[in-house]
Design brief:
The structure holds two protein chains of two kinds. Chain A is mainly beta. Chain A has one helix at about 5-25; strands spanning about 50, 55-60, 70-75, 80-85, 95-100, 105-110, 115-125, 130-135. Chain A has a domain at about 40-90 and about 105-140: Immunoglobulin-like (Sandwich), CATH 2.60.40. In chain A, strand 3 (about 70-75) and strand 4 (about 80-85) form a beta hairpin. Helices cover about 10% and strands about 50% of the residues of chain B. Chain B has a five-stranded mixed sheet, with no helix packed on it.
């Protein structure tokens, strides 16, 4: 471990500073493969965010153009299955210039981080976003543990 | 070299609202009377959607209200804005453009006619 300032040390410090500044420039793009690229074109659809809200798990899924009739949500203790279908119809009498939104038929399953109480499940669709709330089973609820002095 | 870096950082334009954005997927259809544009904008509401027409450039900007409701366990998408700009063919009547937003999908009707002027367009909820 170098304990005094030598010329070599100062050079590395400069490079570290340079690295830090370059990293800061790219912070805006963190979490993206490429800015501007839509995540609606991924292999597994729909894109899903899952949040842990202490007493319940909340899942958001982007499902534009899909109504509640076309969506199926099945919950089985720890596994959630989301399936559905959307047919994109070319309106009568129109010609197609560009078609990027395709027909989708999807089925996705994922495991929750804990068991959930099947009585406390709710699912709503609004503005093309599905919000799925699942209350955690009583044994999975967070608990405060009192610390006793010995 | 560090002085040059410092100068670069100080002179970098300040990003006032630096939300990442993504181009929404869009279908474009046409018949004799109008051009129909359908865009997937999940999470965008009537209040956060703005459609602007400037001569022959049509811009769609939809903002999503961010809601972090807990500890993220897994994230496959970030909260982003949706932005896309199109060059319109000549002959669209800007006064008759109609927009409907429902289930996170925007239907934009662009009736064909003469004269092109810059306009703000009202959005109706579907």
């Amino acid at each position: 471990m170098l304990t005094r300032w030598t010329d070599l040390d100062r050079t590395f410090a400069l490079m570290d500073e340079f690295q830090r500044r370059v990293n800061r420039m790219y912070e805006d793009y963190e979490g993206y493969r490429r800015p501007g690229m839509s995540f609606a074109r991924r292999e597994t659809w729909p894109p899903i965010n899952m949040f842990d809200r202490n007493e319940e798990i909340e899942i958001h899924a982007l499902v534009p153009g899909i109504s509640e009739k076309d969506l199926n949500v099945t919950v089985n203790q720890e596994v959630v299955t989301l399936s559905g279908e959307r047919k994109v119809q070319v309106p009568e009498g129109y010609s197609v210039h560009r078609q990027e939104r395709g027909n989708v038929r999807f089925s996705r399953s994922f495991t929750l981080p804990c068991k959930c109480d099947l009585e406390k499940v709710s699912a709503t669709v609004k503005n093309g976003v599905l919000t799925l709330k699942m209350g955690k089973a009583p044994e999975a609820q967070p608990r405060q543990i009192t610390v006793t002095a010995k | 070299m560090s002085e040059k870096l410092q100068k670069f950082e100080e002179n970098k334009p300040e990003a006032v609202e630096d939300r990442a954005w993504v181009a929404p997927l869009v279908d474009v259809f046409e018949n004799n009377d109008e051009v129909l544009l359908v865009a997937d904008l999940p999470g965008v509401t009537q209040e956060t959607l703005s459609i602007n027409l400037d001569k022959d450039q049509l811009s769609i900007i939809g903002r999503v209200h961010e809601e972090i409701v807990g500890n993220p366990v897994g994230r496959e998408y970030q909260t982003v804005d949706y932005r896309r700009t199109f060059m319109l063919p000549g002959g669209i009547d800007p006064t008759k453009i109609a927009a409907e937003l429902s289930q996170g999908v925007l239907h934009l009707h662009l009736p064909k006619s003469d004269a092109i002027k810059p306009r703000q367009i009202e959005v109706k909820a579907g």
